[in-house]
Amino acid sequence: MLVPHGLAGLLAQSGLVPRGTRVFVFERIFAVFLVLGTLVGVVVIGYMLYNAYKYRDDGQEPTDADRPALGELPTGGGKGKKLFTSFALSAVVVISLVAWTYGTLLYVEEGPSQAESLEIDVEGYQFGWRFTYPNGHVEDSTAGGVLRVPEDRAVRLRVTSADVFHNFGIPEQKVKTDAIPGQTSETWFQAEETGTYTANCYELCGAGHSYMTAQVVVMEPDEYREWYENLNESAS
Q1: Fewest C-beta atoms under 10 Å: which of 41, 114, 169, 236?
Q2: Cβ neighbours of residue 190 under 8 Å, at least 6 residues apart?
Q3: Distance between CA atoms of 92 and 81, rounded to whole angstroms?
């Protein structure tokens, strides 16, 4: 089912579409689907149990004119009004949910503007990751290098590959994108807490695939700024 950009845009402008880190957005999507799925399940099962009790065989002659006889398909009451109402409500719920999810995923795909983001180039190779910062500094995972990023700032990754297909992902930050030779794919994330995370390759790329990992260190903004300035001083 296709949802017009206009409807998704209206939902985004209304404030109903969640904004924030990728982790927050995907947690909100999961919560919405969990609540709606549980609600629909409760309504359907409850209505089924109600009808099973209402039309149970109690040994007495049926007094309900709409009650189906043994072997007869139920026709429903209200001359189709109940059926139409149920279809209409279902359509409204489904279309609204698809539009809301579509608008949310549009935000995830676009991410913050480049002016607000720290851009880092990521290059995959058999079997490691190479990170290049805006000042030209390079960290290589096979040589003990790590990807360092500041806390509470959007980081835009420009990912490619030097040899075969790879896939760069940080599961804790809900970020993953392909690394394709000769092409560059972009993704982003924003870490809410300092700490050390693990980046993996999620594309089978050879005998050393399972060892193709890298550490991602999220630093406090002041600490990161000091580290980055020291890189500039050492380079000069």
Answers
A1: 236
A2: 20, 21, 22, 112, 152, 153, 154, 155
A3: 16
Please confirm whether the linkage preceding 87 is cis (ω < 30° from 0). Answer: no
Residue found by looking up tokens 């001083």 in the block: 233
Determine if the pTM surpasses 0.70.
yes
Task: For residue 158, give both structure tokens.
Answer: 């420009």
pLDDT tens for 101-153 read 888 888 888 877 777 789 999 999 999 999 999 999 999 999 999 999 999 99
End-to-end CA distance of the chain: 56
Question: Which two three-digit tokens encode residue 34?
Answer: 């969990």
d(CA 227, CA 195): 16
| Three-state helix/strand/coil letters over the chain | CCCCHHHHHHHHHHCCCCCCCHHHHHHHHHHHHHHHHHHHHHHHHHHHHHHHHHCCCCCCCCCCCCCCCCCCCCCCCHHHHHHHHHHHHHHHHHHHHHHHHHHHHHHHHHCCCHHHCEEEEEEEECCEEEEECCCCCEEEHHHCCCEEEECCCCEEEEEEECCCCEEEEEHHHCEEEEECECCCEEEEECCCCCEEEEEEECCCCCCCHHHCEEEEEEECHHHHHHHHHHHHHHHC
Mean pLDDT of the chain: 84
Please, which residues bridge with residue 139 across strands?
A: 131
Cβ neighbours around 104 below 10 Å, total: 22
